[in-house]
Amino acid sequence: IKDVYQVALGAENVISLENLQEKKKSILIMGTYRNPDIYMKQIYNMNKYAEKNMLVMLEKLENDNEMTVENALKCIINNSNLEKDSFPLILNKYYLVEMYYRNYYRKKMLDALVKTGFHIDIAGEWWESYDKINSPNVIWNKAVRFDKSYELIAGYRAMADSSPFFKGGVHDRVYAGMANNTVVMTDSNKYRENILNGIAQMYHLNDIDDICMKADKLLNDRAYYENLVYNAHKEYEYNYTWNKVGERIIKHFLSE
Asked: 41, 90, 120, 200: which has the fewest C-beta neighbours closer than 10 Å?
């Protein structure tokens, strides 16, 4: 591999601004889920050396919001006798760290919203293992095809995203929300605060009150919600339509 380039994803608009008041005042959750305890048990079943390293990585991730899984492993390698060239192989072997991390915070976010009483609609696979899936304020539907996902997103006033493993990027569902006037709640880090400030609702992973307070504001403060929608859609039109993304890609390679 000679070079690797990172470009932002685009999204498709399927709803007009005139439809805002028809949106559901529920919070949409999209994606898969596995009980994080499953991955922790697998970590404990590894050999003691691997178990210790993975637990140290998880501790670093929890204590430093800007820490990536890759950098957590590099810290381990730099302070051990492990060969630096073995990094890709060890990262693949320690995939349980990322799977636990992803599902632990997805559950933590959702537990807070469900417990507070927000109406939650889930679209995704494997949620039967979620211990609150039968709560009266939770509706679970199986995942929709990608080409139908924009229509689903467009029907909701708010969507909650948990993707703490993206430290230098944004999940594509955030752009889909921007395109379709659905405000997205997503976990914060420096990268997202720099590009999403004022156009998405960011929350802190370890502050449950923050998540619920911001969800309540989105659903019940019409002026606040409509301002975020307006700002996000303008940013989408300026930077994240597929045409805009294509123009940036072409411009980049023409400048090489």
From this structure: 41
